[in-house]
Amino acid sequence: MIAVSDAVKQIDEWLTQRCQSVNHRQLLMLCGEKVWQQAIAEYTIDSFQQYYGTELPCSWYGERLSNKAVLPHHPNHLIGQQTLLVTYNASERLAAKHFLVLAGTIVHQGLLVVLSPSLATWRHSLTFLAKQSYGTQTSGSAFATYLQNMIVGDSSVAIIEQQSGEIRLPLAPVEHVMSVDTNCAPFATSEQRVVGTAMKAKLAEGENYILSLTARRGRGKTWLLGWLCSAVLAEAGRVAVVSSRASAIKPLFAQTDASKAQQNLRFYPPDSSDLKDSDYDLLVIDEVASIPIPLLLTLCQARCNCILSTTIDGYEGTGQGFLHRLLPEIQSRYRHYNAFQLEQPLRWHLNDSLENLLTRVFCLSATIKMPESQLNTSDFYCRQVCSTELLEQPELFRQVFALLKLAHYQTTAEDLIRLLDSPEQLLFLAYVESQVVGVLVIIEEGNSQVSSLREEISSGQRRVAGHMSLQLCAFNTRAPEFCDLKLWRVNRIAVASPFRRRGIASALLDLATQCAREHQQIDAITTLFGSQPEIEQFWQQSGFSFYYRGRKTNKASNAENVLYVSPISRTGKHCFNLNKTLTPSQHKAKIRDYIAGYRAAGHCQQSFAWFGKNANDIQTQQIMQRLSETSRKLRITDFAEFGFKCESQIKEYLRRLINVT
Asked: In the chain, count of helices (H) and strands (E)?
């Protein structure tokens, strides 16, 4: 066991050596008890500032025993900003998204200090997912083992272990130090100058040009966007900036001339209706990987020049979905489209140790490896794979995640963790020879603990984590018996593009259906997705039947959610068939839930319409018709003509009506 006093001596010697040469950013792991961790971390911060100065801040995220400042609960506001050292207290949970965001702010020579329990205890003492499906039991984190192996196996990572007394404090010298080219001012590099001037020239050619600017993080993308905005503003042009997070574009606004930007530079969220009626010379859409593709295509129809910008790999999603899903659409629709990319890092040096580690750990640059020779695509096979195989075969793990990134526009690092740490998740793979070409992810839904809440879930009193299609069916139909079922929900299905339309996706579904039947406890297979005609056609051809259409749009597809189902057991067939049409008692139960405050009026539209249709008097028909048109929150002004002054009066009216009928 190593004492705090001994550890800080070692830290001091290490920092002394480190500041004498140019080093890459590094990860420093302080593994031990909380008081021990934090004492060393506080000393490290103080010493680090003495060696490297205080021009840039040192930040702390998570619990801090001292009274010094900590970052807010969600560090997303730091995106695009710069820090010299960040301490991340991960003593109980390490959130991948926050880990990546914090690391992305650190400049060259900087440190990411992570506080954690002893490495040997990670599997059972550290969690990586915000929440598991309700009622799911886990035997420890397999991702913890994966991450531990990655960290220990990286020679640039510094580690101090309290219990074992291990101290490993390596240097990470930079082989090729970036030189500052003063001839590029105000640009940081010649690459940034070339890309910036080329984009500015394209924007000057005419209207309705669409440009894309992509980069891995730390390449100066946000600064360049600000420079382009300033160029338009300098010519008395008007600029609209669209982003899913207002805080993320603060650095962009900070570098524009405030006097010129006051009237002519505006921020809008992606779904703002004000954009449609506005007249701008340039529309900048930042973080496009976090915006649904259909919504992006609508934004691109603006009658002005447009810049689409995204980080290819990192905290915005994956960005790979943007490259593979949106850009082909843009290229086919718009004649004046030009793509630009920044390659050279500015915030850190080439071949940065910390960035390389994070890229390997979270498979940020994982791509599907296509074989050099032609494969016989008609000869493929499918099999179920367990998480242990992924843990033991890192290359297979990376290939599976690369496929999933193509399947879903906004696949994140947490999806990677779920492949190893979600016991309710099942994985089926398709191979052509030894090449993985298809993946199917199934989520198990339903267990005894969910069943014990059948009344609360179906009425709207409770909503538990996971069990998405099961809870949706129980709530929408007001049928508690759905909570007694065991379902398999298709979460993702993907096939590499060269192997599509060859029956591989159907073969994966057939294998999953066969396994569900052999399981003998699975009542149905479901799938929930944003409605698109060609996707619905696929599921219909695969033997699934339409069951439900949602009221809200899917965040990834910007379309209404639809649920398709393929019943397996007799119980499943009976439950789904019986509840296709609601009975009078189910309609009454839904309205009682609304009266009790368990569900919103918008969730009772169908029941209000049924009551109106069966009402004997005209006024009741009119009131019910008005209620059935309530899409979200009820507005009492819509019911003033009927004498209602508040929602409680409407509920009292409904209570009497239900008791009479």
From this structure: 26, 19
Cα 305 to Cα 203: distance, rounded to the nearest angstrom: 7
Residue 80 to residue 95: CA distance in whole angstroms: 19
Per-position DSSP letters for 383-420, written without gaps between them: EEE-HHHHHH-HHHHHHHHHHHHHHSTT--HHHHHHHH
Concatenating the DSSP letter of every residue in 459-472 gives: HTS---SS-HHHHH
Phi, psi of 68 (to 5 degrees): -75, 165
> String of b and e for 471-488 (b: at least 16 CB within 10 Å)?
bbbbbbbbbbbbbbbbbb
Burial degree of 235 (CB within 10 A; 0-12, 13-18, 19+): exposed
Query: Residue 153 burial by CB count (10 A; 0-12/13-18/19+): exposed, middle or buried?
Result: exposed
Contact 158, 26 (CB under 8 A): yes
Q: Order the strands of the 282-285 sheet from edge to edge.
A: 265-268, 239-242, 282-285, 305-311, 210-215, 337-342
* CA atoms of 443 and 566, how far apart (whole Å): 15
DSSP codes joined into one string, 49-75: HHHH-SSS-EEEES--SSSS----SSG
Q: Say yes or no to pLDDT of 366 above 60.
A: yes
Q: How far apart are the first and last CA of the chain?
A: 75
Q: Which residues pair with 212 in a beta bridge?
A: 308, 339
Residue 482 and residue 485: Cα distance in Å, rounded?
5
The two tokens of residue 506 are: 């159907």
Which residue, 165, 164, 163, 226, is CA-closest to 200?
226
pLDDT tens digits, residue range 504-562? 999 999 999 999 999 889 999 999 998 888 999 999 999 999 999 987 766 666 678 99
Return the structure tokens found at 638.
């819509």
CA–CA distance, 177 with 352 (Å, rounded to integer): 11
pTM (whole model) above 0.90: no
CA angle at residue 274 from 269 to 275, to 5 degrees? Answer: 70
Closest to 190 in 3D by CA, of 202, 178, 174: 178
pLDDT tens string 57-115: 899 999 999 988 887 777 777 777 789 999 999 998 999 989 998 999 999 999 999 99
How many other C-beta atoms lie within 10 A of the C-beta of residue 658? 15
Closest listed residue to residue 614, CA positions, set 648, 652, 658:
658
Q: Which of 21, 169, 25 is nearest to 106 (CA)?
A: 25
List the structure tokens of 629. Answer: 């048109």
Give the orientation angle of helix 142-152 with respect to helix 413-421, to 10 degrees.
120
User: Which amino acid, one-letter code, is at 49?
Assistant: Q
Are 159 and 7 spatial neighbours (Cβ–Cβ below 8 Å)?
Answer: no
With 0-12 CB in 10 A as exposed, 13-18 as middle and 19+ as buried, what is 14?
A: buried
| Integer Cα distance of 515 and 386 in angstroms | 14
Task: For the chain, state the CA radius of gyration.
Answer: 28
Range 422-432 average pLDDT: 95
* SS3 state of residue 254: helix
d(Cα 567, Cα 524) in Å, to the nearest integer?
4
